[in-house]
Design goal:
The complex is a heterodimer of chains A (166) and B (136). Chain A is mainly beta and 166 residues long. Helix content of chain A is 14%, strand content 46%. A five-stranded mixed sheet of chain A has the order 2-8-7-4-5, with no helix packed on it. In chain A, strands 1-3-6 form a three-stranded antiparallel sheet, with no helix packed on it. The longest helix of chain A has 23 residues. Chain A is elongated, with a radius of gyration of 25 Å. Chain B contains four helices and no strands. Chain B is rod-shaped. Classes of the chains: A mainly beta (166), B mainly alpha (136). Chains A and B meet through α1 and β5 of A and α2, α3 and α4 of B.
């Protein structure tokens, strides 16, 4: 007679093999399997929702920018602010052809995020037009020694009104 | 003369970040990324560099001097960490693969030792048992 039942022994060994394989896989897998960066736009109180629909020409619009780094290493980031239209929005592969009006630089560690209040100007000569406030995320490529477009952007449509009489 | 005065006034208000400082910042940043990829903890260095970046964006002469100090501080820290990096990477790899070996050995150890330990325990728990002759 076997003291330890064969089937029980087989189950124990199977559990040990599965547990061991899982542990090894956890140790050997890369820390970041899907690297990505994220950009978000928030209202002046750094919350989702109360975005401006109308702005005045020459006004400084107050918003907040949210950034997240999940690349597996610290990353120097730059947010380029541009004023455009439906036809000049960025794509996943290229930035907007419009001129950069303002830029903001951030350095984020892996797994960290930041939410910063920003102030962006509305150029003159756009009264009555629906414009897009475009925020593109650019990353500094230390190998190239240059900024590279990340393919991520956010935009907000606003109608430009004539400035109020002071 | 008037324009010269305006220029002088402007230069006292608007300060341009020196190129050397920007280059220093980028070099230090590159080294910090390299160290991070090797697995060295660079949290403190990143926070310091982030502060330096904010000061550089501010642009005032006071902020630029502070940023320069921080960048130099991080530079010396990076230099120290780089000299220790090889030892650190070796230690980390050794630790990782030792744990992998231990985990791989667990099923083998269980296969050989479990029946023996179970048998020893089985006898130990029954060593006071007495076999009696009797009719059932």
């Amino acid at each position: 007679m076997d003291v330890l039942d064969e089937e029980v022994f087989a189950v124990i060994i199977a559990l040990a093999i599965v547990g061991s394989a899982l542990g090894i896989a956890q140790l050997l897998r890369p820390e970041v399997t899907e690297p990505f960066v994220a950009i978000g736009i928030l209202d002046s109180e750094c919350r989702i929702g109360d975005y401006p629909k109308e702005v005045f020409e020459g006004e400084d619009v107050k918003l907040c920018i949210y950034l997240y780094n999940h690349l597996g290493h610290p990353q120097l980031m730059m947010v380029k602010y541009k004023l455009g239209s439906r036809d000049t929005l960025p794509t996943n592969t290229s930035g907007s052809p419009e001129v950069t009006i303002k830029s903001f630089k951030f350095l984020l560690n892996h797994g960290s995020n930041t939410t910063k209040p920003i102030s962006v100007p509305i150029s003159e000569g756009l009264v009555g037009r629906d414009v897009a406030l475009i925020f593109e995320l650019w990353l500094y490529d230390e190998g190239l020694g240059d900024w590279v477009y990340s393919g991520r952007w956010v935009h907000l449509y606003v109608k430009v009104r004539e400035g109020p009489i002071p | 003369m008037k324009y010269l005065l305006i220029l002088l006034l402007l230069s006292s208000v608007v300060n341009v970040v020196p190129n050397d400082l920007v280059n220093d910042f980028l070099t230090v940043y590159k080294d910090v990324v390299e160290l991070s990829r090797l697995g060295v903890n660079v949290d403190v260095l990143v926070s310091k560099l982030s502060l330096a970046l904010e000061l550089l964006s501010d642009g005032s002469s006071e902020s630029i001097s502070k940023a320069e100090l921080i960048v130099n501080e991080v530079k010396s820290e990076v230099y120290r960490l780089k000299s220790e990096a090889n030892y650190y990477v070796m230690y980390k790899s050794l630790y990782k693969y030792s744990v992998v070996t231990l985990l791989a050995l667990i099923p083998v150890v269980i296969y050989y030792l479990l029946p023996r330990i179970y048998l020893i325990m089985w006898f130990r728990f029954r060593r006071r048992w007495v076999v009696k002759y009797g009719r059932t």
